[in-house]
Amino acid sequence: MANKPKPQRAPGSESPLGDMDADTFRRHGQRALDWIAEYLDHSDRYPVMARVRPGDVRAALPAAPPEQSESFDAILDDFERVIVPGLTHWNHPGFFAYFATSGSAPGVIGELLAAALNVNAMLWRTSPAATELEALTLDWLRQLVGLPDGFEGVMYDTASMSTLHALTAAREATIPNVREQGLVGRGNLASVRVYCSEQAHSSLDKAVILLGLGQTALRKIPVDAEFRMRPEVLADAVAEDRAAGRAPMAVVATVGTTTSTSVDPVPAIARVCKAEQIWLHVDAAYAGVAAMVPNCAHILDGCDGADSVVINPHKWLFTQVDLSVLFSRRMDMVRAAFSLTPDYLRTAEADQVHNLMDTGIQLGRRFRALKLWMVLRHFGAEGIRQRLAEHMRLARLFASWVDAHDDFERLAPVPFSVVCFRAHPSGVGWDEAEFERFNTKLLEALNASGEVFLSQGGKLMGRYVIRLAIGNLRTTEQHVARAWELVQHHARELASR
Amino acid sequence: MANKPKPQRAPGSESPLGDMDADTFRRHGQRALDWIAEYLDHSDRYPVMARVRPGDVRAALPAAPPEQSESFDAILDDFERVIVPGLTHWNHPGFFAYFATSGSAPGVIGELLAAALNVNAMLWRTSPAATELEALTLDWLRQLVGLPDGFEGVMYDTASMSTLHALTAAREATIPNVREQGLVGRGNLASVRVYCSEQAHSSLDKAVILLGLGQTALRKIPVDAEFRMRPEVLADAVAEDRAAGRAPMAVVATVGTTTSTSVDPVPAIARVCKAEQIWLHVDAAYAGVAAMVPNCAHILDGCDGADSVVINPHKWLFTQVDLSVLFSRRMDMVRAAFSLTPDYLRTAEADQVHNLMDTGIQLGRRFRALKLWMVLRHFGAEGIRQRLAEHMRLARLFASWVDAHDDFERLAPVPFSVVCFRAHPSGVGWDEAEFERFNTKLLEALNASGEVFLSQGGKLMGRYVIRLAIGNLRTTEQHVARAWELVQHHARELASR
Predict the structure, then answer these.
(1) Residues of A with CB below 8 A from B97's CB?
(2) Where are the strands (E) in A235-344, listed by range?
(3) Measured between alpha carbons, how far is A147 from A164 in angstroms, rounded to an integer?
(4) Are A133 and B36 within 8 A, CB to CB?
């Protein structure tokens, strides 16, 4: 042999071409950790909604990358000086916008460790513990929300992706040979239909677009006075489509719609799906975890008959983004749609394990289970139930204040932790456009306060909606009371102009 | 008003229903940080490939979730006792499998801070700094690899998703009204074709399945003796498909294929695409960053004429998973395919900013830019170039040892940091099946050593391939020499049985 390499090993020895050395990592990691402890403890120190204008953050940083290595102190200084003031603070106790997702300190530690391990769990062998901890924690979550044990779980990044995978499985189950032949130029293929309520999430539109079904494939079923899908209208729609030669592919019921958090009547919808043999997917991304609380356990009634259910721990389960869970009784169809093992990914143990790359479009998988496992153990089931119950109590409290005030009106029931309301000054003879203008200004004034951040919720029955969403671990009764005080104050101010 | 809430505020006050308190977080965060510093400094302490059997990890943990809160020390004890030994260690300097992705210590700190902030950058206003830092760091990366300034970047989780979005944009650009009408039952729609080489990544198969085109839409073009797409065969295939009434939709060229890291002739492919007006997507997920190194700058030649290019910082740019980047000159088509703003996500500044939710299927977006920004600043362009060049030097060195040894053969050129080889004991009269059996056993023996982890690469020209991939910040010449020593040792052992 021409080149005899040196066989000696120098375990742990630093190369000048290696990573940041251990002491430097300790020092800057420590600074980051201290900053975080302060930040989480005083997350109301910053205005909740960022006050920068478009382009401000980018303009404060160099337009070209650094040629030479920079000191990490300088990087962390810029982080504090430029990045933090340019953020909207999702940890602020006055964050009441969208769904008030809430990470937690145990979730931070979980992400920290996962980042250090930096495993890719595409195959079981590329990190057995990541694959198995995912299966285990999802079985814990399944037990906690009361789904039957026939449901297998898998983690994706977002509910949009969980739902996309559910609908891909439904397509695989409905359309013969779609994986091989696709949808183009197949003259004998019936038009497919996916059904959801008028209040369902926009991710469904994106999913039918991506799947090649087109937005016209999505049929939106009217809702009742409490924004719930009307199952008898669904049954009629399915019958009508069948009569017209179209193929119903899936029904998506929502447990906790985005605007009002209404709950579709899943048991009645499941009966339609069972009779018609249509894939039933339940979008419980936000509200599903509430099934852990005894008086909300019924919200997943009927889901034992569903084919798939999405629940997002990164929404209301104190787990850092991103982590969405798809539970399915028919994960075999997800695998049938996507499983595809090139030679270079074949492994000896393939028949004894599930390789995560087979359950979806993504080959690479982060170690997301670690943070969820730490969150579930740190708080315990009881601690989580108490926190969810408290958030729902606070929402009902806020709703009671709205109800009791002549100048405000509530626009939807409050089954969970979101209140839909608007200002409706007594005695004015305004039309809807005038109410909308007034409430738009009210929302702007509230968000400019820096103390609270609320979002609008589109319209319910033609009425402009302001939403107050509770879900943050740092939000207490005082913060909700302060929000109500600010709402009243700014409404009075605006009305007096 | 019936209920007068208490207006007083208690900033920073702890609720018994809140998060882990700050002191507890500091203590356990400190323990995690210390563990990580030790771990990264001695990542060769563990066997690189996990030694557990299927089911071991899960069986070591309770099957039911904890009812009560558990001490975080107990959780971290279990992490060390059960999880860590069940992992395959991607940080181990002997990790030579797949693409030897490498996170870095600055990337850990970036992920730590991002986890604490826990923002969702779906809209500009939901965290302006996250949206703008993404645009800025991707413009830095664009400059570093030498793409023209007409390319806009966006971050996704994986290359599979980046490529899916590129092909969705190509579909939008090619098929009239596909977003609204989809692909089903449109009799006048021509069959579409997507072209790639025989050596292209399996994510393309998954993408055409998902898009409703079917696997038959993917036409795999033969390669030359160095595993590069043959552009003249591509041109013929396009002409043939056009003549048959089919519609070419996209060509995917690869810069750094998965098995051999071959580089398709992008300039010639780009000429075909330009003449035929076909979307050109370049998969440079692994090798794209090598364009930073002067003597590799040419690898992205022709990409100025591409419509989209994917490069993965989480592969060979020392950035934690997940972070894949799609660069496109036609991000408007990605937005045309997906942009869809429900009422509740409308914001006043919509015409002045890009909202990340408009560039893709996912609504929620993690703050991925922070880690990349920290990595680029910590190492600096020069430091990154040096490390990439060193990895390529080590690969060439290993290749020279293979070439000089009579009992081994190299199976492909080494343009980057991956060596394809196999044992080929001199003087044996084996057929391909016998070589495969021998090399399969050799690979098993190597991976059982605990010192190295290599993967197979399917076959090249019918020959079973063992791959040695270098990309880890902790891998030095000693580790590569040790791998070669082990390869020779186990081959001798097996041959002598």
Answers:
(1) 126
(2) 247-254, 279-283, 308-311, 324-328
(3) 21
(4) no
DSSP string of B96-122? -SSS-----HHHHHHHHHHHHH----S
Report the gap between the CA of A413 and the closest CA in chain B (Å): 18
Continuous segment of H or E residues that includes residue A181: helix A178-181
* Secondary-structure class of domain B380-495 per CATH: alpha beta
Chain A interface, best mutation among B20, B203, B249, B398, by max A CB count within 10 A: B20
Closest alpha carbon to B424 in B464, B392, B457 = B464
- A277 C-beta neighbours (distance < 10 Å), count: 9
CB contact under 8 A, B111 and A113: no
* Topology annotation, domain B22-88: dopa decarboxylase, N-terminal domain (1.20.1340)
User: Which fold, A25-49+88-104+380-497?
Assistant: Aspartate Aminotransferase, domain 1 (3.90.1150)
Say if domain A120-366 classifies as CATH 3.40.640.10.
yes
Compute the radius of gyration of chain B from its Cα atoms.
25
- Burial letters B39-66, b for 16+ CB under 10 A, else e: bbbebbebbbbbebebebbbebbeeebb
Q: Do B214 and A104 touch (CB under 8 A)?
A: no
**Stated pTM of the model:** 0.96
Per-residue pLDDT tens digits of chain A, which is 497 residues long: 344 444 343 443 445 799 999 999 999 999 999 999 999 999 999 999 999 999 999 999 999 999 999 999 999 999 999 999 999 999 999 999 999 778 999 999 999 999 999 999 999 999 999 999 999 999 999 999 999 999 999 999 999 999 999 999 999 999 999 999 999 988 888 899 999 999 999 999 999 999 999 999 999 999 999 999 999 999 999 999 999 999 999 999 999 999 999 999 999 999 999 999 999 999 999 999 999 999 999 999 999 999 999 999 999 999 999 999 999 999 999 999 988 877 777 788 888 899 999 999 999 999 999 999 999 999 999 999 999 999 999 999 999 999 999 999 999 999 999 999 999 999 899 999 999 999 999 999 999 999 999 999 999 999 999 999 999 999 999 999 999 999 999 999 999 98
CATH 3.40.640.10 domain locations along chain B: 120-366
State the ipTM, two decimals: 0.96
Q: Read off the tokens for A450.
A: 């820096």
Using a CB-CB distance cutoff of 8 angstroms, which residues of chain B are in contact with residue A70? Answer: 377-378, 380
